[in-house]
Specification:
Layout: E1 3-10, H1 16-29, E2 35-43, E3 46-50, E4 56-58, E5 65-68, E6 71-74, E7 77-80, H2 91-99, H3 108-115, H4 117-124, E8 130-132, E9 135-138, H5 145-152, E10 157-161, E11 171-173, H6 179-187, E12 193-197, E13 201-211, E14 214-217, E15 221-225, H7 232-236, E16 241-244, H8 251-267, E17 273-281, E18 287-293, H9 303-310, H10 315-326
Parallel strand pairs: 1-2, 1-7, 8-18
Antiparallel strand pairs: 2-3, 3-4, 5-6, 9-12, 10-11, 10-12, 13-14, 13-15, 13-17, 15-16, 17-18
Pathway: Cell wall biogenesis; peptidoglycan biosynthesis
Organism: Aquiflexum gelatinilyticum
Catalytic activity: 2 D-alanine + ATP = D-alanyl-D-alanine + ADP + phosphate + H(+)
Length: about 325
């Protein structure tokens, strides 16, 4: 009998638009010979399944079920493609844990920690061969912040919401007079803000997943952006940046990056597929950790999809592996 899989999308943040695009790709790619797929859209106070006729069927939150044609549908598992809150920050994972429903992404604790960029850096910074940029974490937008930033860190700086994705609310600051505007922009998105020194180097993003007891590091994508950094426009507007998969690295760099990535995945107790962003510093070639994305995009042109294909794996088989892993 085919397993019933809930494909969860939507969300409570601006990333919901990207989540819906990812879900559309996953929905048409998943293997219908193995699974019955039910797309579940989650908005604040409104969780529902939309039928082919456009009818919105509410989700029973007692057991995450729906009623279709007078029949109760209970799901065997969840394919989580909800970016941002509540799908990526641990809230949804905690709910699924309480009702005993398996899902394809990291558990509640890992999801909550990795959503916070500052906390994540504190955990991974002692991994061998991994470096992190100097940074400070701000918890309120007060008048003393600029003095502290200029005293403790060197320009240029990246200023970004500590809990967020898709580079929303992020700025690169080159001059002191740009600091306040950047802080205001970041604090408009989050109550915590991370300020970190700029690392000059080549930027990469790399996927990693676990299936059948084996952790697989995918070929990295090198990102060459025409913008100051890989911001929201660069990520989701065609032609703004060049993405090279596999990225241009020496054999030594590939081996070292793969060692580090596998250790990050293990130390953070990740599950399913995650994507990790990093720099290779220009002068030294050192690996600088940027951040981790535990619900990476799955659009047609997403980095993970490019990397899976570069390894010679069909994306459908990749999705099958993620689903079967949650039942193992």
């Amino acid at each position: 009998m085919k397993k019933k899989i809930a494909l969860v999308t939507g969300g409570f943040t601006g990333e919901s638009v990207i989540s819906l695009k990812s879900a559309a790709v996953v929905e048409k790619t998943l293997d219908r010979s193995l699974y019955d797929i039910f797309k579940i859209i989650i908005y604040p106070g409104n969780w529902y399944h939309e039928t082919a006729a456009g009818e919105k069927i509410p989700v029973d939150l007692n057991d995450f079920s729906i009623i279709l044609q007078d029949q109760k549908i209970k799901f065997d598992g969840v394919f989580n493609i909800l970016h941002g809150s509540p799908g990526e920050d641990g809230k949804l994972a905690g709910y699924f844990d309480m009702i005993g429903l398996p899902y394809t992404t990291c558990d509640a604790l890992t999801s909550a920690i990795t959503m916070n960029k500052g906390y994540t850096k504190a955990i991974v910074q002692d991994i061998d061969e991994l470096f992190v940029a100097r940074s400070i974490q701000l918890f309120d937008n007060n008048s003393e912040n600029i003095t502290r930033i200029l005293k403790e860190l060197r320009l240029p700086l990246f200023i970004k919401p500590n809990n967020g994705g898709s580079s929303i609310g992020m700025s690169k600051v080159k001059e002191p007079n740009e600091l306040q505007e950047a802080l205001d922009k970041a604090f408009a998105e989050d109550s915590q803000v991370l300020v970190e020194e700029f690392v000059s180097g080549r930027e990469f993003s790399i996927g990693v997943y676990r299936s059948r007891g084996i952790t697989t590091v995918l070929p990295a994508t090198e990102i060459i952006s025409s913008k100051e950094f890989f911001d929201f426009e660069a990520k989701y507007s065609p032609g703004v940046c060049e993405e090279i998969t596999p990225g241009r690295m020496t054999t030594e760099e590939v081996e070292r990056v793969n060692r580090i990535i596998e250790k990050v995945y293990q130390k953070l107790n990740c599950k399913g597929a995650v994507r990790i962003d990093y720099f290779l510093e220009s002068e030294t070639g050192k690996f600088y950790f940027i951040e981790i994305n535990t619900v990476p995009g799955q659009t047609e042109t997403s980095l993970i999809s490019q990397q899976v294909r570069a390894l010679g794996i069909d994306v459908k088989d990749f999705y099958n592996a993620l689903i079967e892993e949650m039942f193992s």
